Amino acid sequence: MSALRIALLTHSVNPRGGVVHTLELAAALTALGHDVTVFVPAVRGETLFRLPPCRVVYAPVVLPQVDTVSMVEARIDAFCRALIDYDTAAFHVLHAQDSISGNALAGLKAQGLVDGFVRTVHHLDQFDDPRLAAWQRRAYQEADQVLCVSERWTHDMHSIYGIRAITVPNGVDAARFSSRRDPHDAQLRQRFGIGDGPVVLAVGGIEARKNTLALLEAFASVRRALPHAQLVIAGGASLLDHNAYSRRLLQRASELGLSIGPHENVVVTGPLEDAVMPALFRSADVLSMVSLCEGFGLVVLEALASGTPVVASSIAPFTEYLDDATCCWADPLNVESIAAALVRALGESGIDFEHAVPALLARFSWATSARRHMDAYRRWLARRAPIPH
């Protein structure tokens, strides 16, 4: 089959897992010789945190955004206008990476402006607002082919929602993330007041889904044995409102006697530029990924590629690709279990960086992910009319 014209749609310019997936996939598909365009909604002056080696179309967000519902609606509208202006018929594959872009394509499909589309489900959220819940549901129900980044979500999509999905995992850029130190490492530590440690790193900001409060409680326990330990909570650029949960964490930190700020017990970096992430992983002594719900957990592979031990929740999807030789397990519902796993990872972790970790990383490359995406695209296209030339 000749090269395909592929549109990848992602919901934000910020470095969230699904957005990173989109940009890495765009680069890998481009390397395979395909013509890729990334569509992303953006308010005036915004640009992607990392530019892929392909065409990027920014969909201007112009509607008022006073709350989460209006923000989502504005981005769906932005996608629709940009795709109509660009001409959706120019693409063989339209691939939504989230509920926002999935709703835009579902709407265009209902109008007869799109023949069909592919949707990747990274994970699903629980929404109290009925409109947000309906948008999330429509984005996968109206898709012609659903992909998931883990077997856990492929299984759930079928058993819970009646959707037959295909598993296409993430990859990791093992050239970008490595244990080789450089001058940026010391600069990063100085910038955020990261001391000699040990340093516990959590990536993704302060969120209930990330289980940050339980991690804070566990970290307080770790400090009783390791009084110089620091917890670094990095990232957190999100379109959803996590302010109430963040306030709870700040209050609990005060109750636990943990100071927050540069050079303090807990360092909260906020959203970070993409270029500093490799140095951040290398600056940590352990990555904590004790989430209650994840699609895949891309930062786990990035940390391991950087030579940093990992504590992971003993739940799927982590149990699909990690084992005792590549991580330290923790029960995410048990603070004592998290604390014990952190102490173990900071000591004799048992993680085999000589054999098991390289073998794990070799299984997950973006080139492999791109080829599996192409297989899924071709199977889907084969069920439709012949590709126009």
Radius of gyration: 21 Å
- Which strand-content bin applies to the residues? 15-25%
Instruction: Quickly give the CATH architecture of the largest domain.
Output: 3-Layer(aba) Sandwich
CATH topology of the largest domain: Rossmann fold
Q: Sheet bearing the most strands, described? A: 7 strands, parallel
- Report the average pLDDT across residues: 93
Globally, the shape reads globular
Report the span from N to C terminus.
Answer: 11 Å
- CATH H-level name of the largest domain... which superfamily? Glycogen Phosphorylase B
The number of distinct structural domains comes to 2
Order of helices and strands: EHEEHEHEHEHEHEHEHEHEHEHEHHH
Q: Runs with pLDDT <50, length 5+?
A: none
**Number of helical regions:** 14
Q: What spatial order of strands do you see in the largest sheet?
A: 3-2-1-4-5-6-7
- How much helix is in the residues? 40-55%
Count the E strands. Answer: 13
CATH level-1 class of the largest domain: Alpha Beta
Keywords: Transferase
InterPro entries: Glyco_trans_1, Glyco_trans_4-like_N, GlycosylTfrase_MSMEG0565
Protein name: Glycosyl transferase family 1
GO molecular function, one term: glycosyltransferase activity
